[in-house]
From TrEMBL:
Alphabetic keyword roster: Chromophore, FAD, Flavoprotein
Disordered: annotated span: 160-189
Source organism of the structure: Microbispora corallina
Cofactor dependency: FAD
Pfam families referenced in this protein's UniProt entry, alphabetically: DNA_photolyase (PF00875), FAD_binding_7 (PF03441)
Ranges for domain Photolyase/cryptochrome alpha/beta: 2-126
Listed InterPro entries: Crypto/Photolyase_FAD-like_sf, Crypto/Photolyase_N_sf, Cryptochr/Photolyase_FAD-bd, Cryptochrome/DNA_photolyase_1, DNA_photolyase_1_CS_C, DNA_photolyase_N, Rossmann-like_a/b/a_fold
Transmembrane segments annotated in the record for this chain: none
Protein name, UniProt field: Deoxyribodipyrimidine photo-lyase
The keyword Chaperone is annotated on this UniProt entry: no
Family the UniProt entry places it in: Belongs to the DNA photolyase family.
Amino acid sequence: MDTIVVLFNRDLRVHDHPALAEACARAGRVVPLFVLDPAIEARHRRDFLHETLHDLRSSLRTRGGDLVVRRGDPAEEAVRVAGETSATRIWAGGDVSSLARRREGRLAGACRARRLEFRLFPGVTVVPPAALTPSGGDHYRVFTPYWRAWSATPRRPVLGPPERVRLPDGLDPGDLPEPSSEPFGVVRGGETEGRRRMAEWVDAGLARYAGTRDHVAGRTSMLSAYLHFGCVSPTELVELACARPDAEDYVRQLCWRDFYYQVAYAFPDLGRRDYRPRADLDWAGDGDAAAAWREGVTGVPIVDAGMRQLRREGWMHNRVRLIVGSYLTKRLRIDWRVGVDHFAELLLDGDMPNNCGNWQWVAGTGNDTRPYRTLNPLRQARRFDPDGEYVRRYVPELASLPDDLVHEPWRSPAPVRGYPPRPLGGELRA
Ligand SMILES: Cc1cc2nc3c(=O)[nH]c(=O)nc-3n(C[C@H](O)[C@H](O)[C@H](O)COP(=O)(O)OP(=O)(O)OC[C@H]3O[C@@H](n4cnc5c(N)ncnc54)[C@H](O)[C@@H]3O)c2cc1C
């Protein structure tokens, strides 16, 4: 009886999972496998991942299967499990980062050596990364033409979850780490939770997105971590959104995600090397000013609020990511890689293409067609947090200041106790 190993990666769901759906339809036996790789375990995303894996295991068990869990190198373990179960094929979802592609390359080589079929399936993005190319280039460098081409591209159909998953007999499923009793971050992991949030968002949040998405005290869809781990399918999310009126602004943001994935696919060094080298830039390195930025003690309230939100919640509003990013790179002139590393450590949605693509955009080395633009933090704060609700929430030292001073505590006639948390030079001010 034919057996297929389905190697899960950043596609931790049973709905709209092309490899799992086809394997369950075609093979007598299917081994859903996840390999915990200590080499890439990110401390602050660990709780979300473990919650997600428990949820996936329970969904697969409900369908008669299980999530088989191993530890080590995913390519080696997948081949080992294929050997144990006499599987003839290993299928997986394709990914874009250079790390993921090196792993895919190793797995492809190991499969060739053992005469196993190896196949990669779409699903991490709505439109596969290399599917759209402009005339005369291997990828889109500017968003608007990409958006036009992306919007006109037919999408693959959304797939239902498999009804039954038939596991080979006698296979040890392996242990999953228990979820932490005090998990980090503002959202809990798992496809079940992701789908609940997606449905609620499409029903109740989406319609007001266009008018409110830059209000920093409010919440946007908060689906980014679910998209990062694949608890939610981006294709299904776009389909659901497109069935509603006024979804264009939201779908456009999801297109930005695909946009950066195709940039990262074509330019694998996106995380380390300037996408558009700029001879006029001489970055400062990591030092006291960067430390103050990371801790949220720069003395600029909107910047400090954002950096503290990140530390507390593992998430930050997109507008504030832009403000703190512009402040680090354009005002302090600190290398964008310092920002990338800090965000990558703390964000629950920390994701190579989106994190690095956006940082390079903000720094003026990436896909922004106006690389010299600078966001004035004070003006941004007055516009997107007009009554100071956001700043008061994350910088309680400023909670009792009136609205007209909350973004400019230095104008207060009476000194504000405890803020800025330590005396800083004027160069850190807005
Ligand atoms: C400096 C910087 C770093 C960032 N790092 C990341 C990161 O590591 N991971 C990440 O997922 N997003 C990143 N973003 C993009 C964006 O801030 C987040 O996707 C968004 O805030 C997540 O919240 P949400 O799901 O509520 O977004 P919503 O506003 O509800 O948007 C829906 C979805 O669209 C996508 N999206 C929205 N804005 C962007 C964008 N600018 N670029 C790419 N995709 C977008 C995301 O998948 C998001 O979940 C970064 C932005 C900046 C400026």
